[in-house]
């Protein structure tokens, strides 16, 4: 995610790199959404292992799902390529095309592209990174709350604990969607879906309507992932700055997940979970607000860069500017 080309430049819209940029990130987050769907089915099956090996069903849930994550994580360290040059699934011409585009964008520069703590620090000073990091924080609260507590919410609606696991599958399956274009508009639209879902849940006492609201909120928050991840990575360069920006975003998401563990149950009581739902509604609204702020900021910066390009030549520009280069166009 940190070294693939951006996809906003019209003249390179059909290049190999652009295909990987959209497809890889969309696939990544679609898999995350599907994991929520199959997680309910898997949990339903695993808890039936009650007593196997002298262990309760919930213990097997932790053992089996945790073991897969650990093993797959270790394998990924050896299987994932460290750079475009080491990507075995790309041919020589594809590698050269991607590298050429990265050089044009200023993402890769063999003369200046070396790791430095200065570039790490620069990522923390980019307004577009801070805006999206804030969005990731609120998205993390929503995503983790729905992932952790959807079965509990369904139990509160009157479904049995076992059936609640199964009933949590359709809303997550509906979240298996991605459409790309303007990153900011996609993020705003996804957040509005969340807002609709949480308002429905708060406004109605009908369990069928409240269950239906989950299709809006879960689909919305899962659809926001690809747009936010590409929006963050597309607007930071060079590689060290971009990699740091991505790390900041996902750290904020995990921080939001920590907050979510207390949101339902400790801070918000069943059966209505009113406080928790209101908090998630506010988080969705903040996602819209921060997305609008980032859109306006990036649009203004692109106007300034257009004026700068008309006044000078790229050859006269200092090296190592990365995303601050007048020839680096921010993705909206």
Report what the structure shows:
The protein is mainly α. It has eleven helices and no strands. It has helices spanning 16-46, 57-79, 92-105, 117-123, 127-156, 161-167, 169-174, 183-203, 207-234, 239-263, 274-311. The relative contact order is 0.15.
Distance between the termini: 18 Å
The poorly predicted ranges are 6-20, 173-180
What's the total helix number? 11
Radius of gyration: 22 Å
Q: Could you give the order of the helices and strands?
A: HHHHHHHHHHH
Quantity of strands, as a count? 0
Q: What level of helicity do the residues show?
A: 55-70%
Q: How much β-strand is present in the residues? A: under 5%
User: Major sheet: size, sense and barrel closure?
Assistant: none
**Mean pLDDT across every amino acid position:** 80
Provide the structure class. mainly alpha
Quick gist of this model?
By secondary structure, the chain is an all-alpha fold.
SSE layout:
Blueprint: H1 16-46, H2 57-79, H3 92-105, H4 117-123, H5 127-156, H6 161-167, H7 169-174, H8 183-203, H9 207-234, H10 239-263, H11 274-311
Helix pairs in contact: 1-6, 1-9, 4-10, 5-6, 5-9, 5-10, 5-11, 8-9, 8-11, 9-10
